[in-house]
Each structure stands twice: as structure tokens, then as C-alpha cells.
Automatic annotation (TrEMBL):
Protein name: Kynureninase
Biological function: Catalyzes the cleavage of L-kynurenine (L-Kyn) and L-3-hydroxykynurenine (L-3OHKyn) into anthranilic acid (AA) and 3-hydroxyanthranilic acid (3-OHAA), respectively.
GO cellular component: cytoplasm
Domain of life: Bacteria
HAMAP family: Kynureninase
Keyword Hydrolase: yes
E.C. number(s) listed in UniProt: 3.7.1.3
Subunit composition and interactions: Homodimer.
Keywords: Hydrolase, Pyridine nucleotide biosynthesis, Pyridoxal phosphate
GO MF terms held by the record: kynureninase activity; pyridoxal phosphate binding
Pathway terms, separated by semicolons: Cofactor biosynthesis; NAD(+) biosynthesis; quinolinate from L-kynurenine: step 2/3; Amino-acid degradation; L-kynurenine degradation; L-alanine and anthranilate from L-kynurenine: step 1/1
Length: 427
């Protein structure tokens, strides 16, 4: 293998031929910073900033009348944004709502779909899911006085990944609900949602997915494949800001159900201000909304979704696959095969890979700190994973090249070892 197998010129040529390259100028990309943490918090776009400023001006000018007046009235915002989101996940507009947080939405949907009875008392999930989802599932067992053993967690196999065969094998007659991520947050492994949905339904099991690590970078077809419910955040690849209001989807076949947790924003809009009791719920997924949405954390979602729609989710996915392949090739060539340690946990195959690369190294904590100090921003996940997420709307191939060269240089000269092995409180 020659040293010129990969060159910086190749990265520049890839950028030259990138149909999405112009979108980078529509984001605030800090000079001197190589940002690879968009799967934790996406960068601010200029259109998202304008949307937030517009909402502040509406608050200033209209006060409470901002709910029904101004350039973008707030009262119907969750429905409007749900409609914009629907095309990204392959749902009908009335199956989607922008509401709450990922965890609160999971609570609301588990309160509806997890009703243990007879032999069906268990929740099937996996040990590698994001902890907040697991905390929510565990709490619903407690609410129903079910033992902790009713939460079945599938662990990784010998490859360090979750086997879909193991998940299917665990879909036994005592399982009531399955909750899985579309992409595992640490490894970047992409699940076959269609296969698992079919297998769950064959056994009479309800199945839901957390789309937090796929929405905005991978297209879905949740309605057509029959997914029962889904949840997601809007601050990663959607880039709608820290703590942006989340989203939920419920297949239309379940719209006859009453929400297990109810709140006044789940009302039929025409009757909401009748203030009547009991709840007159919306005849759609909007019935699973709870309280009043935080408008300043919601308004940027529309601008962000419009950017994604302009670029096209298929084009975004294609570039994401190309960029994660390029990143993998460079890490393998310049770091792993050069004897500098580490391995890549993320599956190589396109149909099993999400939007980021999980690079495992025994010095991951120290290396992550050293990288940030020189302007390269990944994130760390214990015990030894650094995640690198090239976001197609603003990450260039040159960024990827430059980041890997910094990683190589730090590991070669050992400068990362001057940093503590204690992880930061927020990593």
C-alpha cells in the first residue's frame, strides 16, 4: 500500500464535485474549527437564526396575540411542523406532531401502548440504546408494578454490534412492546426497521423506534412499513438548536386510541379554548401533545426542515454515505493500519451504517481532549469511543482529511498523553 493511495487533492476534488457544497455557507461554520459533533448538536443555520429572531420580534410586537397574529402564528405551529416533518420520515402529515422532548414523547407513547395484560407484560429493547429511553421504559414497569426482569435487553454479540436475529428470537409471546433505535447512538449501526416491524407484527407485538440519530440524514418510510410509533429530537442532524422541541409519529391505525398521558395541547384545536373537561382530543397524532410548546425552542425547526427539503433527503443520505466511507478509509489507512491503534465499530456496509463513524481507541478520552484543543470537535462516549459525524449540509471532504491528519499527528507524537484520562462532565 503506497503512501499516496489517499491525498488531500482527492478531498479537494470531492468538494469540487459536491452538489451540496453551497449549503455550507448557509451555516455558521467557525473558522479554524473542524466540527464533527452534529450528531449531538447541529450547527446554527442563518435561516434558523432568522426564524428565532422573527419569533422574538413577534413576541415584542404582538405579545399574547402572537399565538394567532404575525408572520408565523404560534398556535398551529406543531401541526405545521409535523406536516413538514412527515415527508422526511415517510408518514402522513396527520400521523406526525412536533411536541415535547424525545423522552417525554416516549413516556406519552408508552403510557398508551404499554398496557401489560395476561401473558404479554414485557418490553423488549437493547442494552446499547440511549440511556434516557431505557430509563423511561424502566419507569413504566414500575408504574405497572412489574419486575425489572420484564425489561428484556439484547446485548451486543461478538462483533460488538446488536444482532437483529437476536432481537427477533427475543420476540416471544410475553412481549407487549418493542422499542429500538433506528441507529445505535454509540456504534452508528443502522437497524433494518422494515424487517423488525414485520417480525414484531407477525407475533402481535407493537413496535416503536427512536429516530434521533437518523432523522435529517436518512430517509424513512415509517407508514408504509407499518411502524406503530416513533420519537425523535430535532437538534442533531435537523440542526434546530439546543433542546429544540422534539417530534412523534403514531400510525393512523392507532388513532382511535386515547392518549395514555393527556394534556391540553392534545385537544381538537377548534375546541381547545372551550376549556372543557374531559379532553376532546385531536383526531390525529396531535392528540399525544401535552403542554404548551416552548415557542423559542420550536420556531427554528421549520427553517431547518426547509433546508433539508431543499437539499433533498436522498442527496443528503448519498453524501453522508460517501463521507463516512471516506472518513473510514482515511482512519484505516493513516491510523489503524499505520500501527497507531484503534478500531472502527461502525458497520462497513451502507445498509447497516448510519450517519457517523465510531472510532474506538484505548486513549479515547485523552485524544478527544487533545483534538478539541486544536479545533477538531468529535464527542466521547464511554468507555473508549470517539464519534465523528460529517453532516452533509456543512461538512466538507477537506474537513474530513484535515481531521484525520490531526488525529494521526497527535497519536504519532503522543501529545494527547499530556491530557487526563478523566472524562469531562459533559463529553
Amino acid at each position: 500500500m503506497t503512501s499516496d493511495k489517499f491525498t488531500r487533492a482527492q478531498a479537494l476534488e470531492l468538494d469540487k464535485n459536491d452538489d451540496l457544497a453551497a449549503f455550507r455557507d448557509r451555516f455558521y461554520v467557525q473558522p479554524g474549527v473542524l466540527y464533527f459533533d452534529g450528531n449531538s448538536l447541529g450547527l446554527l443555520s442563518k435561516s434558523a437564526e432568522a426564524a428565532i429572531q422573527q419569533a422574538v420580534e413577534a413576541w415584542k410586537s404582538f405579545a399574547v396575540d402572537g399565538w394567532t397574529h404575525g408572520p408565523d402564528p404560534w398556535f398551529h405551529l406543531p401541526e405545521k411542523l409535523g406536516t413538514l416533518t412527515a415527508s422526511l420520515i415517510g408518514a402522513h402529515p396527520y400521523e406526525v406532531s412536533v411536541s415535547g422532548s424525545t423522552t417525554s414523547n416516549l413516556h406519552a407513547l408508552l403510557a398508551t401502548f404499554y398496557r401489560p395484560s395476561g401473558s404479554r407484560t414485557k418490553i423488549l429493547a437493547d442494552s446499547e440504546n440511549f440511556p434516557s429511553d431505557l430509563y423511561a421504559m424502566h419507569s413504566h414497569l414500575a408504574l405497572h408494578n412489574r419486575p425489572e426482569t420484564d425489561l428484556i435487553l439484547i446485548g451486543p454479540d461478538a462483533t460488538g454490534l446488536i444482532s437483529e436475529d437476536d432481537i427477533v428470537s427475543a420476540m416471544t409471546d410475553d412481549v407487549a412492546v418493542v422499542v429500538l433505535p433506528s441507529v445505535w447512538y454509540k456504534s452508528g449501526q443502522l437497524v433494518d426497521m422494515e424487517r423488525l416491524t414485520k417480525e414484531a407484527h407477525r407475533r402481535g407485538i407493537v413496535i416503536g423506534f427512536d429516530l434521533a440519530h437518523s432523522i435529517g440524514v436518512i430517509g424513512h418510510h415509517v407508514h408504509d412499513i407499518g411502524v406503530d410509533f416513533a420519537i425523535w429530537c430535532n437538534y442533531k442532524y435537523v440542526s434546530a438548536g439546543p433542546g429544540a422541541t422534539a417530534g412523534l409519529y403514531v400510525h393512523e391505525s392507532h388513532h382511535d386510541l386515547a392518549p395514555g398521558l393527556a394534556g391540553w395541547f392534545g385537544s381538537d384545536k377548534e375546541r381547545q379554548f372551550n376549556m372543557e373537561f374531559p379532553l376532546a382530543p385531536a383526531a390525529s397524532a396531535r392528540k399525544w401533545q401535552l403542554g404548551t410548546p416552548p415557542i423559542l425552542s420550536t420556531v427554528a425547526i421549520g427553517a431547518s426542515l426547509e433546508l433539508i427539503q431543499e437539499a433533498g433527503i436522498a442527496a443528503i443520505r448519498a453524501k453522508s454515505l460517501n463521507q463516512t466511507t471516506f472518513l473510514r478509509q482515511l482512519l484505516e489507512h493513516f491510523v489503524i493500519e499505520a500501527g497507531l491503534g484503534g478500531q472502527i465499530r461502525t458497520p462497513r456496509e451502507d445498509d447497516h451504517r448510519g450517519g457517523h463513524i465510531a472510532f474506538e481507541h484505548e486513549d479515547a478520552v485523552q485524544l478527544g481532549k487533545a483534538l478539541r484543543d486544536v479545533g477538531v470537535v468529535p464527542d466521547f462516549r464511554p468507555p473508549v469511543t470517539l464519534r465523528f459525524a460529517p453532516v452533509p449540509l456543512y461538512t466538507s471532504y477537506q474537513d474530513i482529511w484535515d481531521a484525520v491528519m490531526v488525529i494521526r499527528d497527535l497519536l504519532q507524537n503522543g501529545r494527547h498523553r499530556q491530557y487526563s484520562r478523566e472524562r469531562d462532565v459533559v463529553s
